[in-house]
């Protein structure tokens, strides 16, 4: 049951991720008084790039001419991968109690949803990364720190527990 729930939740997270790859193109219609320079400043793109995208050899443009500003099909798609790693988890030493399932992680981007499975008892909790885990002495052997409510949900018997982390993130090259 919990594996099926995990798969469904991962699928939802993956679907909700923003797809960077698109076939859309962005055009600008030249108006009276505009130059390649003024268009380049307006869209924060180099004159050379505008010339390259539109096969223009000189600086001559005409009123009403459609100029290709951005060809998104040329933008490289970021590779997203599902990571499953074994790690150690502990709780965040919070001053105030939070009712949210949050985490600090060593390398995952802020906003990443992570499935945390306690390897001792199989309990699973889903948390959102709110920041980077500081690289300090107390965090040397810890990969993720969870909010107190999330850590309690794992029914941990020790302060530091072995966990399996599953999340979708950018491929590290």
Task: Report low-confidence residues grouped into runs of 5 or more.
Answer: 17-23
CATH structural architecture of the largest domain: Beta Barrel
Strand content: 25-35%
Distance between the termini: 35 Å
How confident is the prediction overall: mean pLDDT? 82
Order of helices and strands: HEHHEEEEEEHE
Indicate the radius of gyration in whole angstroms: 24 Å
User: What's the number of helices?
Assistant: 4
Write down the CATH class of the largest domain.
Answer: Mainly Beta
Strand order of the largest sheet: 3-7-4-6-5-8
**What's the name of the CATH homologous superfamily of the largest domain?**
RlpA-like domain
Number of domains: 2
Q: Outline the biggest β-sheet.
A: 6 strands, mixed, barrel
In percent, how helical is the residue content?
Answer: 10-25%
What is the topology?
Elements: H1 2-16, E1 25-29, H2 36-43, H3 47-54, E2 66-71, E3 80-91, E4 102-105, E5 113-118, E6 124-132, E7 144-146, H4 148-153, E8 161-170
Parallel strand pairs: 3-7, 4-6
Antiparallel strand pairs: 1-2, 3-8, 4-7, 5-6, 5-8
Folded structure, characterized:
- The protein starts with a helix and ends with a strand.
- The protein has two domains: 25-74, Membrane-bound Lytic Murein Transglycosylase D, Chain A; 78-170, Barwin-like endoglucanases, CATH 2.40.40.
- It is an alpha+beta fold and 173 residues long.
- It has four helices and eight strands.
């Amino acid at each position: 049951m919990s594996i099926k729930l995990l798969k469904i939740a991962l699928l939802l997270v993956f679907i909700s991720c923003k797809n960077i790859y698109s076939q859309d193109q962005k055009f600008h219609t030249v108006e009276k008084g505009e130059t390649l320079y003024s268009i380049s400043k307006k869209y924060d793109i180099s004159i050379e790039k505008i010339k390259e995208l539109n096969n223009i050899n000189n600086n001559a443009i005409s009123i009403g001419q459609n100029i290709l500003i951005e060809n998104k099909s040329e933008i490289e798609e970021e590779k997203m991968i599902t990571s499953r790693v074994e790690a150690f988890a502990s709780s965040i030493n919070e001053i105030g109690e939070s009712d949210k399932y949050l985490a600090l992680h060593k390398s995952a981007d802020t906003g990443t949803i992570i499935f945390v499975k306690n390897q001792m008892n199989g309990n699973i909790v889903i948390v959102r990364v709110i920041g980077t885990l500081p690289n300090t002495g107390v965090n040397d052997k810890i990969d993720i720190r969870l909010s107190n409510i999330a850590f309690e949900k794992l029914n941990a018997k020790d302060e530091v527990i072995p966990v399996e982390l599953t999340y979708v993130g950018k491929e590290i090259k």
